[in-house]
Write a structure and sequence with these properties.
By secondary structure, the chain is mainly alpha-helical. Among the domains are: 32 residues, no CATH class; 41 residues. The chain is 56% helix and 0% strand. Helix 5 packs across helix 6. The longest helix is centred in the N-terminal third of the chain and has 13 residues. The chain is elongated, with a radius of gyration of 28 Å.
Length: 114
């Protein structure tokens, strides 16, 4: 079917020649033409570049106590805090994710309860 189409044979003639409905020929040829191509997505382009995204993640992992506002000031001042949050969420991170926590033993729990 692709060979006939590549030679320039019209879809209707291919349909008659192979005794297959025209819609199947058309759908197959169109699907074959789009194979391997990425469909361009809808929506707005992100404001941050790949290097900025990497820097945001690196900053977050380096010091998890930094706030989104601090990251915005350091890396991308033209971007909102929400964008920073989204970029970290794309990499399955949150601002507090890698934060070292204090090990709570019995003495510390008693102290906290008092």
């Amino acid at each position: 079917m692709y060979g006939l189409h590549e030679r320039g044979m019209p879809l209707r003639e291919i349909s008659n020649y192979l005794n297959i409905p025209l819609t199947i020929i058309h759908n197959t040829v169109v699907a074959g033409d789009q194979e391997g191509k990425e469909r361009k997505g809808r929506g707005r382009y992100p404001k941050t570049s790949k290097t900025q995204n990497d820097a945001i993640v690196e900053e977050d992992l380096k010091n998890c106590n930094t706030t989104y506002k601090d990251i915005v000031k350091k890396i991308a001042p033209e971007v909102s805090k929400k964008s920073i949050k989204h970029r970290l969420a794309e990499r399955n991170l949150k601002n507090w994710m890698a934060q070292e926590r204090v090990h709570i033993d019995e003495a510390l729990t008693q102290k906290r309860l008092e």
